[in-house]
Amino acid sequence: MLKQLQNYTNYLAVEKGLAKNTLESYRRDLDKFIAFMHKQKITSPEMVDQKALNLFIGDLKKNGRATSTISRCIASIRSFFTFLLQEGIIENNPALDLASPRIEKKLPRVLTTGEVDLLLDQPKLSEHNGLRDKSMLELLYASGIRVSELVGLNITDFDPKVGYLRCLGKGMKERIVPIGSMAVNCVSEYLGNSRAKLFGKNGETALFVNHHGARMSRQGFWKILKKYARKSNIKGEITPHTLRHSFATHLLENGADLRSVQEMLGHSDISTTQIYTQITRRKIREVYDKTHPRA
């Protein structure tokens, strides 16, 4: 099964173009699954049946795995066996009727516009690092892109004249995202004044670079965000996705249509975007309860 797993991950990487982190998630889930199967003396895909799969899921539950973790494992297993069926390795798919546990969707954390302003005001613009940090934060909130998309941007992906970004999302899908004047001005100032001071002479094409002049990493940006989150004294955890959630919610609150927000976020399924409508409905209810005389 390990050989087939390698073939499967190669397929995901080459033909599906999945991101490195997504590939690693699939691999971790399936490594655990195969290790469990080997303990049951099941060493080939043809030997796996629904009973064996249920034993594995039961073991995950017994070990206190979160519902979201179990659901992700099931999705990984389903995808793996679908691939094996397509390749003619197996004749029947034992994971076809494997049911995922129901996951209670939690509404994402969203900052108020005041909290966003407070966070974005933390970097010191008199410092080259500060102007870079401010540019990244402004761009993240202005566009709603993922942190992996942010650090993956090249200089040529930023067009200040028309106010658009070109970014590569999940599955290497390209999309064009509009950005506001505040973000455009901030990034333009960073490019004109600060990037060259951080850049060095190594031919780096990345839009955002670290103090070594190399492309900013996801981990590097996380550290930067955590620093400014602490300085802002905003209650609760702030992650790069918090700004993405805030971007989407604030657009919908101000009249944007759901389909446009879906396009900007790069969601393939509009049901993923619909969670933000629950947040806006909740806020409307809170406003009503506070302001209506007979509420």
Note down, in words, how this protein is organized.
- The chain has 2 domains: 2-86, DNA polymerase, domain 1; 113-290, Orthogonal Bundle (hpI Integrase, Chain A), CATH 1.10.443.10.
- It has helices at 2-14, 20-39, 50-62, 67-86, 113-120, 128-143, 147-151, 181-199, 218-232, 240-253, 258-265, 270-273, 275-291, and strands at residues 158-159, 164-168, 174-178.
- Strands 1-2-3 form a 3-stranded antiparallel β-sheet.
- It is mostly helical.
- The longest helix is centred in the N-terminal third of the chain and has 20 residues, at 20-39.
- Helix 2 crosses helix 4 and helix 6 packs across helix 10 (240-253).
CATH class of the largest domain: Mainly Alpha
Number of domains: 2
Task: Let me know the largest β-sheet.
Answer: 3 strands, antiparallel
Write down the CATH topology of the largest domain.
Answer: hpI Integrase, Chain A
Compose a concise summary of this entry.
The chain has 295 residues and is mostly helical. 58% of the residues lie in helices and 4% in strands. Strand 1 and strand 2 (164-168) form a beta hairpin.
